[in-house]
Amino acid sequence: MQARRKVLILGVTSVAAMSMLVVSQHAFAAGTGTPMSGLVSAIATKFNLKPADVQAVVDQYQQDEQATRAQKETDRLNQAVTDGKLTAAQRDLIVAKQKEMQASMDQIRGLSNDADRKAAMDKLQTDLKTWSQQNNIDMNWLRPHRGGGGRPGWQPTDKSSTPAT
User: Fold this and answer.
1) Residue 146 pLDDT > 60, yes or no?
2) What is the dihedral of CA 44, 47, 53, 59, to 10 degrees?
3) What range defines the domain where residue 100 resides?
4) Are the CB atoms for 88 and 81 separated by under 8 Å?
5) The pLDDT value given to residue 150
6) What is the DSSP string of 8-68?
């Protein structure tokens, strides 16, 4: 019975974590707490669990999902090289730029003023357009593919703009 309860709790936590991710991230951006803290607290209270244990499950789930997304992105870019849609050099530039973008987004999320966040996002967008043109890489290659679940993923709209050279 105890094992069944743990499986149920893990399942509920996973489903709730996925469904509440957007809401909790918005609350975090508004400065109301850490991501998922409200959900973690609610699950811990409902199932009489230690909040730290629930948080550990949520953290592990998020890490696993991030690793899965990273691997899918790596596979997508490698396949684009294999298919001749990108060169290996372009792929390497994209990977480096995606890491740089993640660091920039982390900094932007830390800004407390909406106007500052908007200005930083506008600058990031302008810088990305310039980088894209300078490197002859369609900006859509910078957006991770998020296919599956009936949602279309990002794909370059004009494959001719990313020739293999």
Assistant:
1) no
2) -70
3) 84-165
4) yes
5) 36
6) HHHHHHHHHHHHHHHHHHHHHHTTSSSTTHHHHHHHHHHTT--HHHHHHHHHHHHHHHHHH
Distance separating alpha carbons of residues 8 and 12, to the nearest angstrom? 6
92 and 164 fall within a common domain: yes
Core vs surface per residue 149-159: b (16+ CB within 10 A) or e: eeeeeeebeee
Give the pLDDT score at 82: 97
Q: Tokens 């959900």 — which residue?
A: 39
How many independent structural domains does the chain possess? Answer: 2
The DSSP call for residue 73 is H
Asked whether 127 and 110 are in contact (CB, 8 A), the reply is no
Are the C-beta atoms of residues 1 and 82 closer than 8 Å to each other?
no
Q: Are residues 62 and 95 in the same domain?
A: no
pLDDT digits (tens, 9 = 90+) for 39-81: 999 999 999 999 999 999 999 999 999 999 999 999 999 999 9
Q: How many CB atoms lie within 10 A of CB 17?
A: 22
